[in-house]
Amino acid sequence: QVQLRESGGGVVQPGGSLTLSCGASGISPRLDDMAWYRQAPGKERELVATITRGGNEIYADSVKGRFTISRDNAKNTVYLQMNNLKPDDRAVYYCNAKYGNPVISSWGQGTQVTVSS
């Protein structure tokens, strides 16, 4: 199974920015849809943004206009640029990648994002 690893989390003040990265290690298959999810304390995991291999993007309403998802297919890497961060954005952010037929879904281990003054 594909191993995904996120990086870039940390502590930032409200209004600040962070960029998350997620790469597939080792020899990996052709990755199709890639996505970022997040899970805040006491809440269910939710979709933040997803991007197809061709670059079509979908965002949760709560992050539209503030977050941008992108990917580098040659590097099997997906990014999440997060601007104007709010305290409600505090969560563990997880990378997800789908590949294969039948479809296999792989997850990273998560990276913590804390927004606090």
Question: Could you explain the architecture of this structure?
Answer:
The chain has no helices and eleven strands. Strand 7 (67-72) and strand 8 (77-82) form a beta hairpin. The strands form two sheets. Strands 2, 4, 5, 6, 9, 10 and 11 form a seven-stranded mixed beta sheet that branches. Strands 1-3-8-7 form a four-stranded antiparallel beta sheet, with no helix packed on it. It starts with a strand and ends with a strand. The chain is mainly beta and 117 residues long.
Beta-strand content: over 45%
Report the C-alpha radius of gyration, rounded.
14 Å
* End-to-end separation: 39 Å
Estimate the helix proportion, in percent. Answer: under 10%
- Low-pLDDT residue spans: none
What is the H-and-E element order? EEEEEEEEEEE
Query: Structural class, please?
Result: mainly beta
Shape from CA axes? Answer: globular
Total beta strands:
11
Mean pLDDT: 95
Largest sheet: 7 strands, mixed
* Number of helices in the DSSP assignment: 0
Descriptive key words:
mainly beta; 117 residues; single chain; seven-stranded mixed β-sheet; four-stranded antiparallel β-sheet
Secondary structure elements and their pairing?
Layout: E1 3-7, E2 10-12, E3 18-25, E4 31-39, E5 46-51, E6 57-59, E7 67-72, E8 77-82, E9 91-99, E10 104-107, E11 111-115
Parallel strand pairs: 2-11
Antiparallel strand pairs: 1-3, 3-8, 4-5, 4-9, 5-6, 7-8, 9-10, 9-11
